[in-house]
Structure formats: structure tokens, C-alpha cells
Write a structure and sequence with these properties.
Elements: H1 7-10, H2 21-30, E1 34-38, E2 43-45, E3 53-59, E4 62-67, E5 73-79, E6 100-103, E7 107-113, H3 114-123, H4 125-151, H5 154-169, E8 173-175, H6 180-187, H7 191-203, E9 207-210, E10 213-216
Length: 223
């Protein structure tokens, strides 16, 4: 598979921040890599499995889920094109994956061997600096996620979700692209709890719901 068709996607990858298409193309042609395909539903990585490669998702969506000993499953994140898979575990001393990763759609990843990626970092200071920033950003994201899962009430979690989506989409008329069940899983709550809180917010005049479309009427009531 020709990796050059994914140049535009790779330009959105944090590793190549502030680089142009020509530079990214030179990196691809200068270091051995391969394109790996996963079908929808295929396991990408299993909890406890070592992180063996440096992978960049270039097509499709990966769902990252964590399970408790009791079998309760929480969706930690969804990776979209341009994301590096598990960057903090590529060179970790204990590089066992803490989550199970599954192809939510048909998926294509650009894959480097670890030693190849280590060479790129050593020889290109821009990629190295971007990788350090990526690791810092990943740590910040996981800290916020842990805070949400362990400290926030259900009501606070749902309010936080709505406010985040409004900020991301830059509008008060937001679209929830995932199902109610998927959203509940991502917050570690039951679907009926999510539905109950959304209904409460609507009755209180904070939001107006129309399927997956939600309009924030009064953000001050999202508390």
C-alpha cells in the first residue's frame, strides 16, 4: 500500500507539527515502514500485551477500552486519523498495554519498528521535540480523564461532556456523533444514568434535545 496517499493525514499528526508535505514525504521515504490493515472488529492490542511498534492511525477509528476485574468496561478514548497509538508506552520500561484496543471501523496504520522510530527521533530534532510535547499532552489528557472517572458525579460528567463538545465544535448547537451507550461507556456510567441526567438538564431549561443534536440553552444551568 502506498503511504504517500496519507501525507495530508500525517500533516495533522502531532509528530509532524509545523512540517510541510515535502518534509513528511522525505521522512517516509527515508525510513523503513509498512502499512497495516485491520478490519472492523479486529483486535488491535490486548490489555497486558507489550507495545511493540510505533503506530500512527491514518484511516478509520480505534476504540480503547479498560476492563475491571468484575468485567465492567469503560471506553477510555477513541483514536482518529493522525493519532499516534499509545505513545507513552512505545519506550516505557513496563510497556504492557493498559487497555484493549479494537478497530471500531476498517483501519489502516503506518507502522515503524521501535528501533527505526528511535533513529528518526535521534536524527530529526523537530520530530523529537514534537514527540516530547505529545508525551506531555498525553499525560495531561490521562490526568483529566482520571479526574473525571473518579471524582466527578454523573451530573458533572455529563455537563463536562456537553461543554467540551460545544468548545470543540465552536457552537452551542452540538452533535453527539456516538450512541448514548458509547458515550455512557466512555464516562464509566450506565446508559440509563446518562439519559436521566440529559432529561433533567432539558427539564431545567439548560439544553434542548433532538436526537443526537443538542442545543445548549443556558450553560449556567449545566451544574
Amino acid at each position: 500500500m502506498d503511504s504517500s496517499k496519507y501525507i495530508e493525514v500525517l500533516l495533522s499528526c502531532p509528530l509532524f507539527r509545523d512540517m510541510d508535505a515535502e518534509t513528511v514525504g522525505e521522512i517516509l521515504s527515508g525510513y523503513t515502514h509498512r502499512m497495516v490493515i485491520f478490519d472492523k472488529g479486529d483486535p488491535f492490542a490486548i490489555t497486558g500485551q507489550p507495545c511493540r511498534y510505533a503506530d500512527i492511525l491514518v484511516e478509520g477509528t480505534l476504540a480503547c477500552r479498560m476492563s475491571s476485574p468484575a468485567g465492567k468496561e469503560v471506553e477510555v478514548s477513541r483514536l482518529t486519523p493522525g493519532r499516534v497509538v499509545a505513545p507513552a508506552f512505545i519506550f516505557a520500561t513496563n510497556n504492557a498495554m493498559p487497555v484493549t484496543v479494537q478497530a471500531a471501523t476498517n483501519v489502516v496504520v503506518l507502522r515503524w519498528q521501535k528501533e527505526t522510530f528511535r533513529t528518526i527521533l535521534a536524527q530529526d530534532s523537530r520530530v523529537q521535540a514534537n514527540f516530547i510535547t505529545l508525551l506531555s499532552d498525553t499525560n495531561a489528557f490521562l490526568t483529566r480523564k482520571l479526574n473525571m472517572l473518579s471524582l466527578m458525579t454523573v451530573r458533572e460528567k455529563v455537563a463536562n461532556l456537553l461543554i467540551q463538545r460545544a468548545m470543540e465544535q465552536k457552537t452551542r448547537q452540538i452533535v453527539l456523533f456516538r450512541s448514548r451507550q458509547e458515550i455512557a461507556d466512555s464516562m464509566g456510567i450506565q446508559k440509563f444514568s446518562l439519559m436521566r441526567v440529559l432529561s433533567e438538564f432539558e427539564k431545567e431549561g439548560a439544553i434542548k434535545i433532538d436526537g443526537r443534536n443538542i442545543e445548549i440553552i443556558d450553560s449556567r444551568k449545566l451544574k
